[in-house]
Amino acid sequence: MRPVAALFGQRARLRWLHLILGGALFMPFWMVGSLVVAPLLDGGGIFTGSLGVQWGAYAAGLPLAAVTALFPLARPMSVAAARALCGVPADRFADGPARGRAAKARTAGWFSLHLGCGALVSGATLALPPFAVSVMALPFSPALRESELGRLWGLDRPGWIWAGLPAGLLMLLTLAAVAAAAGALLARQAPRLLGPSPADRLAAAERRAAEAESRNRLARELHDSVGHALSAVTLQAGAARRVLDGDGADLEFVREALTAIEETTRRTVGELDWVLGLLRDEGQAAAAGPGPGLDALEALVRGAGPRVALTVAGDLDPVSEALSREAYRIVQEGLTNAARHAGGEPVAVRLDARTEELEITMENPLPERPPVARPHGGRGLRGVGERARLLGGTVEAGPVDGVWRLAVRIPR
């Protein structure tokens, strides 16, 4: 069964179809070659029956096909056909137009090989089966046996009358074997000639890095906006509950806490819409705005509670949009970190824009009891470091003289 599958199985049939496609693509080049060769050899037209003209047109058409393969669309079209019909794993092919001389030369080599082999197999596929059927019909037709074909095969002699059956069958099997061998040759050469070059691999690696950075950015945005909102709301709600549970409830404090919860949730819904816009469509999110920046910093601090103090030195207006957005997120994550781990201690936030660097410093006294750490650690400070490094800045975080300090410096 294996020999039969190798000659007539689905893979063999698809590769045969791929070769016939190559023969069809070669026809325009063959006709142009005939226009050039026919007048030089016998002065006949392009449809002359001379074998010299046919082979001359074939030889002249192959270089024309190779030149055509230098155009940008040649490799994507060849890769699409080979992926569908050659039975080669899709990941072994390059994507996009060929870049560089070596890649273009390999594409030209593949195009010439595909069209050259395809033209020969297509011609044999068109001509040989009718001839083989005629040979196989010779024993059953006296007229055919007495024709020139019968005399050529010697079937007009006694004892040879049935020789046409195996001869015609052998022709068909030979055609199938040649088509299978040519298809296997193309399948072996496809990854080498249409596979990724070093430039293609570098471009693919850059695309993967850009996609990973985009995913990391979305993760940071979700973590900072939603995480901060939940921490701030939890802190304010807990404080309001404790005041209501105590003697002589301070209704004004509870009102301020509820107002802070309302502002925080309303602001976070807008930020969440912006982040979801990034997931749906980068252009739509960009049209909706770049996200919150330092102009929204006072509202952020106000929503974090009365025990957070903000100090700004210098003018923040000249700060670029990208730096303003990242600085806002850094402060937001610092406040989230303090809400989770500072145990209600006061938090001091300072921004200094008087030098060539924007300095962000956040400090809070260390609580008497160490905070309960999450089993696998948090992602907040890691995200702060990623944001700062993307803009060429530095981050320092840790306990200093009984105070937890987060210091970020980013060039303006």
TrEMBL record:
Organism: Streptomyces wedmorensis
UniProt name for this protein: histidine kinase
Domain named Signal transduction histidine kinase subgroup 3 dimerisation and phosphoacceptor: residues: 215-282
Transmembrane segments: 16-41, 53-74, 111-140, 160-187
Pfam families: HisKA_3
Keyword Transit peptide: no
EC annotation from Swiss-Prot or TrEMBL: 2.7.13.3
MF GO annotations: kinase activity
Keywords: ATP-binding, Kinase, Membrane, Nucleotide-binding, Phosphoprotein, Transferase, Transmembrane, Transmembrane helix, Two-component regulatory system
Known catalytic reactions: ATP + protein L-histidine = ADP + protein N-phospho-L-histidine
